[in-house]
Amino acid sequence: MRDLEKASGVGRETIRYYIREGLLPEPDKPSRNSARYGDIHVARLKAIKRLQEERFLPLAVIRTLLEAQGGEQLLQLPEAFPSLDALLAQRLDAAGPARVALAEMDLPDAMAEHLSDGTVTVAEDGSVSARDAAILRTMLRLHDIGFSAELGFDGGQMRLYNVLIDWLTNQELRQFLQHTAGHVEEAKALDMAEQGISLINELLGQLRTRALLRKLAEWRQAGGDAR
Q1: Given a cut of 90, is residue 65 above it in pLDDT?
Q2: Rounded mean pLDDT of 49-71?
Q3: Where are the alpha helices (DSSP H) in 11-154?
Q4: Single residue among 108, 127, 152 that ends a domain in this structure
Q5: Residues 91 and 188 both lie in one domain
Q6: Domain count for the chain
């Protein structure tokens, strides 16, 4: 363990946590009081550390990458697409101010909970990112047309959306990286990601609308059958 700490730059408690969580394989244990770690442990620890520090990926996403087919190759993504995240953010957030002051948004008290439930991130100066501000404006429009807490549309709905989006984007990230890393140049991956986000948002909207209409028809039919 001491040698692994020195080789990887990661502390033993973190290493043990990664093993418990399945991010690292169990070491060989020739006896009860000894354990042997190999090159795979060093490589994975360095890759996990790099993905966290340079790509800001959470452990849940890193685990998804490791569990995917070809996961070991995906751990080299910082070298494959070293600037993809920064360039994509520049393209998607090119227009408008970088930060928006919450005081300028005139949000109702009913939306205050969303400032602390993880839906948006509020900086110490009381501002949010332009994208978080757009999310709040959309939520405000929903509130204004009647989706209010008085009718039962409270934070539970947003928590549901956040869980679904987190799961979905983990799957999308795994699929995209698995099929592009090592197969296309970074410029091509950037174009695909930028255009794909917009098109898939449109596709998801169409699929959701179709599903909602189908469910309404099914429920109406079920009610008629019961009567």
Answers
A1: no
A2: 73
A3: 12-20, 39-54, 59-67, 71-74, 77-80, 84-92, 130-144
A4: 152
A5: yes
A6: 2
Q: Which amino acid is at 8?
A: S
What's the pLDDT tens digit per position in 122-140?
898 989 988 899 999 998 8
Range of the domain at 84: 80-95+155-227
Locate the DSSP E strands across the chain.
Answer: 28-31, 34-36, 99-101, 127-129
- Give a yes or no: residue 119 inside a domain: yes
Q: Which residues pair with 36 in a beta bridge?
A: 28
CA–CA distance, 51 with 44 (Å, rounded to integer) = 10
**Which one, of 63, 66, 62, lies nearest residue 54 by Cα?**
62
Find out whether 136 and 111 touch, Cβ atoms under 8 Å: yes
pLDDT, averaged across the chain: 84
Decide if 61 contacts 171 (C-beta within 8 A): no
d(CA 69, CA 62): 13
Q: Tens digit of pLDDT for each residue in 154-202? A: 778 888 898 899 889 878 887 887 788 778 888 999 999 999 999 999 9
pTM for this prediction? 0.64
Place of tokens 């928006």: 100
